[in-house]
Amino acid sequence: MQQTQTLPFSGAKSDAADAVMLANILRLDADSHRPIPEDTDLARAIKVLARAQQDAVWARTALGDQIRSVLKDYYRPPWPRSMR
Asked: For the chain, what is the largest distance between any 2 Cα atoms, rounded to a whole number of angstroms?
């Protein structure tokens, strides 16, 4: 089987160019690529746990920011900021 060069390679990185290249590869050589398999139950469970962990991290960060803001307001020094 002879392989032909269908796309020139450029060293420049671009999301738009990458998307066009991938679309062309699938359009021109779809037979030589296997379909992406469905996620297993384990993979779906891992996705759910990873999302829950990320949500917990975001919530923890938001709470820390809120606490910091409240404490800054409560313990505001009596002198102007320029005198520090």
From this structure: 81
Encoded tokens for 24: 């062309």
Q: What number of CA atoms fall less than 13 Å from residue 66's CA on the CB side?
A: 6
- Output the CA torsion sign for 18, 19, 24, 25: positive
Residue 4 near residue 25, CB atoms below 8 Å: no
Contacts for 33 with CB less than 8 Å, ≥ 6 apart: 25, 26
What pLDDT, in 10s, does the model give residues 39-64? 999 999 999 999 999 999 999 999 99
- pTM listed for this prediction: 0.54
Query: Measured in Å, how far apart are the chain's first and last C-alpha atoms?
Result: 76
d(CA 37, CA 39): 6
How many CA atoms lie less than 13 Å away from 26 in the CB half-sphere? Answer: 8
